[in-house]
TrEMBL record:
One of its GO terms (molecular function) is branched-chain amino acid transmembrane transporter activity. It comes from Geodermatophilus amargosae. Keywords: Amino-acid transport, ATP-binding, Nucleotide-binding, Transport. One of its GO terms (biological process) is L-amino acid transport. This is Amino acid/amide ABC transporter ATP-binding protein 2, HAAT family. Gene3D superfamilies: P-loop containing nucleotide triphosphate hydrolases. InterPro entries: AAA+_ATPase (IPR003593), ABC_transporter-like_ATP-bd (IPR003439), ABC_transporter-like_CS (IPR017871), BCAA_Transport_ATP-bd_LivF (IPR052156), P-loop_NTPase (IPR027417). It comes from the Bacteria. Pfam families: ABC_tran. Belongs to the ABC transporter superfamily. The keyword Transport applies. The lineage of its organism: Bacteria, Bacillati, Actinomycetota, Actinomycetes, Geodermatophilales.
Length: 234
């Protein structure tokens, strides 16, 4: 449903992404692994239309979408859950969620909101409270919920477990699996390689802007280039 081929992204002379190809299928979780500076975040940002790509192809649901503006990509079914969650602290949980649903009509918005509350019951409990008062894990669920409000086919997520306590990480990653089980294709960058490998279906490992491994997550642990670069083993 999302097919990325030969994506190139540069910041001036810095070639951050050099020919990345990957795919995301409905109901599947694709994990992007790589060391700091490997180009993971830049890949997600380019796919979300937040930084321009120099060349390549991004096909979403059969249509070429590279170069489209972020709001158009959201309408087409691509949602980004940004690094650091970026919820609007002074607004309530419900207001944050409604902002995520700005592309939907009013009736659809209410039914989608109900579905999000169903998926993340804590958000329903806290719906009238300020988002800034939620815990880190709850804010991450809110960031997921806000993205779900646009009824995405594909979700891009940048380090959803960052800064969370290990026990909270488990529940966040369980939330990711639940969204995939609902049929959403997920492309996830995750520093926590062990937990990410346990969760993911497919793995794409990148180093210096290039893909060095693509395969099933179960096989990835045995692959030398994956281990060398990301798990600190030979
Ligand atoms: P991290 O895990 O540290 O976030 P990453 O794999 O996500 O790393 P990117 O953030 O995509 O890597 O960075 C890839 C390269 O692009 C790095 O060399 C980085 O210094 C550079 N870079 C990233 N953002 C910018 C920017 N806004 N301007 C210039 N160079 C940038």
């Amino acid at each position: 449903m999302l097919e990325v081929s030969d994506l190139h992204v540069a910041y001036g002379k810095i070639e951050a992404v050099r020919g990345v190809s990957l795919s995301v299928a409905p109901g599947r979780i694709t994990l992007v692994l790589g060391a700091n500076g490997a180009g993971k975040s830049t890949t997600l940002k380019a796919l979300a239309g937040l930084v321009p790509a120099q060349r390549g192809s991004v096909v979403l649901d059969g249509a070429e979408v590279l170069g489209q503006a972020p709001h158009r990509l959201v309408r087409r079914g691509l949602a980004l859950v940004p690094e650091g969650r970026r919820v609007f602290g002074p607004l309530t949980v419900a207001e944050n969620l409604r902002m995520g649903g700005y592309t939907a009509g009013k009736r659809l918005l209410e039914s989608t909101l109900a579905k999000v509350y169903d998926t993340f019951p804590i958000l329903a409990e806290r719906r009238d409270g300020a988002a800034g008062l939620l815990s880190g894990g709850e804010q991450q669920m809110l960031a997921f919920g806000r993205a779900l409000m646009s009824q995405p086919k594909v979700m891009l997520m940048d380090e959803p477990s960052m800064g969370l306590a290990p026990v909270v990480v488990d529940s966040i990653l369980a939330g990711v699996r639940q969204m995939a089980d609902d049929g959403i294709g997920i492309l996830m960058v995750e520093q926590n390689a062990e937990a990410g490998l346990d969760l993911a279906d497919e793995v794409v490992a990148v180093a210096r802007g290039e893909v060095v491994y693509t395969g099933a997550s179960g096989d990835a642990r045995n692959h030398a280039s994956v281990l060398r670069a990301f798990l600190g083993e030979a």
